[in-house]
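Assemble and predict.
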Amino acid sequence: MAVEGTWEIITGNHAAAIAAKLARVKVVPAYPITPQTTIVEYIASFIESGHMDAEYIRVESEHSAMAAAIGASAAGVRAFTATASQGLLLMSEVLHWAAGSRLPIGMAVVNRAVGPPWNIHVDHQDTMSQRDTGWLQVYISSNQEVLDTILMMYKVAEHPDVLLPFMVCLDGFVLSHTYMPVNIPRQEEVDEFLPEYSPPHWKLDPENPITFGNLALPDEYQEMRWSMDLSMRRALDLIEDVAEEFFQKFGRYHGGATWKYKVEDADYIIVTAGTMASEAEVAVDELREEGMKVGLLKVRAFRPFPHRDVAEVLQDRKGVVIIDRSIAFSSGGPIGIEVRSSLYNRSGSPPIANYVTGLGGRDITYEDIARMTKDGIGRITSDRLRRPYYWYKLKPEYEKIELSEEVRL
Amino acid sequence: MTLTIHDLRKEPGSYLPGSAACPGCGATLAFRIASRVLGPNTVYVVPASCFSVIQSPFPKSAISAPLYNIAFPAAAATASGVYRAYKMLGRDVNVVVWAGDGGTVDIGIQALSGAAERGEDIIYVCYDNEAYMNTGIQRSGATPLMAWTKTTPTGKREMPKDMPMIVAAHRVPYVATASVGYPFDLANKFEKAKKMKGFRYIHIFSTCPPGWNSPVSKTAEVAKLAVDTYFWPLYEIENGKLRITVKPRKRPLKEFLELQDRFRGLSDEQIEELEKIVMEKWNFLLHLEKSERVF
């Protein structure tokens, strides 16, 4: 279990590009968008310098990027692309198409706010809004995790029980453009871990012609959607198994569908995702020094959503503080909504304080996480938990309106 | 070598009996001929179009070659991905987009332009029935001036896009127009395209009896008259050089128009105006034919 490979100090985007190279993807359709651009730039340089054997398609839009990835995967090869924000939204139609075609395409999504107004900084509105496309979604907290998760998720996505595409979601600039030490595994070891993709279900092949995606009438369609849902649920255990296998081979473990930090004896649990989760680890330590028994449940897989895992960790706690970086307008944070769904109909359901914050790159530090946690605990213990969700870190003049507003929810 | 009916009869093609096409469908006639020339070593990518239905519903299929259905705007991009994957696998397969006019000149034009500019090694076929027929006859960017559709109930007021010329302006190796009324001209254009490399584009005039309200028994005749009246000239642009492949004796446009209800009620002046436009285009093509390079 010794960590081999080489250490480099690189950005999250560089780590994503190296992961695509190590995964030996064969087709990379690419279209630039900030803050994803350096991923496709690195891949272009890998290919043109002869360090990566792949076809690079300089498409004219993200819609075409995903459509080309679909074509490549349907023809039977491993495909990869990357995007962000508006690019992901333009892809939306073909995201559904990729998943419905059961093509295990890999994509790095560098999370960025959605316009208008233009904003290139992090929040999770882009990927959260695509949660029902049938893609597996994993949210990431470090550059090492970016690289490792792309390799792991190809293995999960290509498993015959899954066969769905995946997006690895990394926070714009916070990871994409920030340098961190990353261990780059050796190619031979990656090859052993992730063998060449060979479609176990179908491909476009004149030797074995099939028609794919023609009309399915009401007596056929619903079972096809059901099978996607079933595969998505089956992916949960596989994410754990593959993470364990990865740990055995490379000595690194970032968690399975969730990552737990100091939850065993915790009275209160913070639930969040992405880089806010690494800030939350620091917050947990700080709060514990102040005598509060707090733990962290980091949601890595948002799709499939680990309902059972989440419920088992949160059941019978004194309270839960959920911090979301996107807004389901008038409904709260998407993670908050899911967690409630995990806990409803179970005994020992704890009170939940859900916070929406950090939109458009508003900085959320461990101090903010600690402040929200204290606010949440305060509301829970003094019976002031009146709303399904709260906004955090609004400017004071807006905060005043928000708190005075009679909320009809 | 020129293909004849004897050559075409030898090849079974990829179109099976029992499809869901309307009677007299020009698009299926085009596919029947094209697939015989292209042969079984061919993959088809089909965006939303009549052909999404013609192939017949799951779990059946009237197409014996591999066929992938893709979202409306995406066909050329998807075909690019298929071709690049085969390239990586070292496989030589004809990758063919089979799209309608809406999927080509309107919603699919961006992906088409991108693939043409990149020089993807694919054959893009537009079977053109001159409106959104699968959704029930709405005007497209390919609908002719003055034609009735359900969204142009008093006749279209705009000229259609000159899509073959738009593609030719990308300086691709091969662009051709064809008509299901001239099957051997059509077959030979596929034969030529098949042997070439790079982005190839064939735009086929395809009669639509339900959409045009033309007699189902006259699909070929309508498509032949389109050419003979110079409404739909047949030409090819090979490496920039234009050649008119069929130069029929000109017949009055009225003979073509009166076979279809979509042009019913046009005044003599309107028909005169259309004649003028048709002759201008024809003379322009004759002029282009003299050039060393059109684009």
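Residues 268-289 of chain B form the longest helix (22 residues).
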